[in-house]
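Hey all, quick one. A colleague (J.T.) asked me to put the zinc ion job into the tracker so the inputs and the structure tokens live in one place instead of scattered across chat threads. No bug as far as I know, just bookkeeping. Sequence used:
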Amino acid sequence: MPEFLKQQVFWGLRFIDVVMLAGGVIVVFSILSNILRRFRDDQIKAQLAKIRCPQCGWTGASSKHTLRCPKCGNRALSPS
Ligand SMILES: [Zn+2]
């Protein structure tokens, strides 16, 4: 191990400790952001319903709460 890695940088931590700590923090953060992103995607998906407009034939995902056709504005949509 190179000597500078064993030198104490601050708070009694060696350079190698700081590097490992930083690496650990980065790993934890990337895992957390992955989980958060998946959670947010699930929430967005849960808000959307696949629908088909009987008026103009448009199909796609729209908010469950509005259920309004983005093409013709038909409000009489039902999830299919
Ligand atoms: Zn429509």
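Adding what we noticed when we looked at it: Residues 10 and 18 are 9 Å apart (CA to CA). The mean pLDDT is 83.
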